[in-house]
Amino acid sequence: MKKKYQLYLLYSSIFLVFLGISLVIPVMPSIMNELNISGAVLGYLTAAFAFTQLIFSPFTGRAADKFGRKIIIVIGLFIFGFSELLFGFGKTIEVLFISRMLGGLAGAFIMPAVTAFIVDLTTDKNRARSLGYMTAAINFGFIIGPGIGGVLAEISTRLPFFVAAALGLIGGILSIFMLTEPKKVTEVAADKTEVTTSNFKRLFTPIFFIAFLVIFIASFGLASFESFFSLYFDRKLGFTPSDIAIAITGGAMIGAFAQIVLFEPLIRRIGELNIIRAAIIYTAVLVFVITFLDSYWSVMAVAFIIFIGFDLVRPAVTTFLSHIAGNNQGFAGGMNSFFTSLANVIGPVLAGILFDINMDFPYYFSVVILLIGFIITVFFWRDPRKV
Known about the structure:
- It is found in: Cell membrane.
- It is a multi-pass membrane protein.
- The protein has helices at about 1-35, 40-65, 70-90, 95-120, 125-155, 160-180, 190-195, 200-205, 205-225, 230-235, 240-270, 270-290, 295-325, 330-355, 360-380.
- By secondary structure, the chain is mainly alpha-helical.
- It has two domains: about 1-185, MFS general substrate transporter like domains (Growth Hormone, Chain: A, Up-down Bundle), CATH 1.20.1250.20; about 185-385, MFS general substrate transporter like domains (Growth Hormone, Chain: A).
- The longest helix is centred in the first third of the chain and has 33 residues, at about 1-35.
């Protein structure tokens, strides 16, 4: 029973972080006008979070292996709370940049440590479900964050950040008293993947590198698609902000539902690698199809189901990594976060360049990247547990 409550607390920690990240979405235009921030600076400000997480995730993942999961999670939650508080009080662009970078650092502390903690608390039988719940918590944070941020912003444009800071502080205090350092997991496949060389060499071990490459490809495809969804359909079909909110929120909710209901049965029936292959090709087809749609309801229909593919790839890769990482759970979680952040930095930048050439190009490019990922999973990726 204690493990069950600890899992709930871990899901809550992840939820709070991504809720805090998405709270900023409806507030940023007001902050931009208040401080006379240009669009380019706003873009850099948004990227600062992902870039900092990108840099520090590999180190914090190893720290979780060396010093323990709990201390890394607690530190991350307090850093997160401070970063949100700093943003709430920030009156200069320099302070806002420091705040976003601290937020990225907090994410780097929390994500790999929570992933490793969940792996340690679960068994081979229920791990897929637990990791699926973790991803659902991330998505739920993104789903309701903008709505809560918009409501709070009606009172004050800074209030969302103060609320996020309080949630981070509460999460950190609860973690101190309620989390118990788990016994680290060693899987059967560990003898095939355990590496005593440097992290750099471990990264390029085929069994790890291909998994991380697939994480990057899936995250890149999502970032390229999602970051320009609103602008794309505003220009193409004249979507209003409420139309865009319905499409993204509806799609995210159905994706989260698929993770909770479909993921574990699919893992048992076809395994992680086949889920990844099917989800990638499913997503590539729908991203390509959506560029040809020219009616409101056809776009809504595809938008509602397109996130299912994205939302099944991540927990499938995470579950696969948890089985083959052995005593390197923190390393696997850190590199997972690293490649996700790398895609979140590069994807929107390249998509923006392509969008200025032709608004369909970001989606075509996303399709090409996803197809490359599919080819990699089919011809180059093998499960060491079946060798």
